[in-house]
Design goal:
Structural class: alpha+beta
Distance between the termini: 61 Å
Helix content: 10-25%
Strand order of the largest sheet: 1-2-3-4
Order of helices and strands: HHEEEEEEE
Radius of gyration: 22 Å
Strand content: 25-35%
């Protein structure tokens, strides 16, 4: 390695480090440092109002999915939102975690934070893989966005970001 190459590498690394530090707010760096050093960031409240449901425990709950929702083997990519006194859940259901033409996204809601009374709001089925659901409350509307892709389980075939409104 020549001296010129060494000097260029030092300059490149210096610029890279400076750029990362310049675009990262101090508070974010502080949070990351606290997370690493103490196991959790200072000032972030622990959420204790929600209970965690492990899949093998779900049969013991008194929660019933609407009969119109037909789950597949792989249920993932979950989005949750509270909007206008309702609790919304959207998720991907497919034969596996890989791309499939039979993938569906289900959206359901409850008026009591998910304890009971689930309503099947909508099913999205496009004949291609769909995933990455995300709720966005926008004033008096609730936007639901998601990603569509291909059907080949071993290829990344992005198509579009899509959205619907409630």
């Amino acid at each position: 390695m020549t001296l010129t190459h060494l000097v260029l590498q030092v300059i490149f690394v210096s610029v890279l480090v400076f750029t990362c530090l310049a675009v990262t707010p101090y508070e974010e760096l502080k949070w990351n440092r606290e997370l690493i050093n103490n196991g959790e960031p200072a000032g972030v409240p622990k959420i204790t109002a929600f209970r965690t449901i492990v899949s093998h425990d779900s049969k013991n709950l008194n929660v019933q999915l609407p009969s119109t929702i037909k789950l597949n083997k792989s249920n993932n990519c979950v989005s949750i939102a509270e909007y206008k006194d309702r609790f919304y859940v959207g998720w991907r259901s497919a034969p596996s975690h890989f791309a499939s033409s039979t993938t569906k996204i289900y959206i359901m809601s409850s008026d009591n934070m998910g304890e009971k009374n689930w309503v099947h709001e909508h099913t999205i089925e496009l004949g291609v893989d769909i995933r990455e659901p995300f709720f966005v409350p926008l004033g008096d509307r609730l936007m639901f966005s998601f990603f569509s892709a291909g059907t080949n389980p071993i290829a990344f075939q992005p198509k579009a970001l899509l959205r619907i409104f409630r």
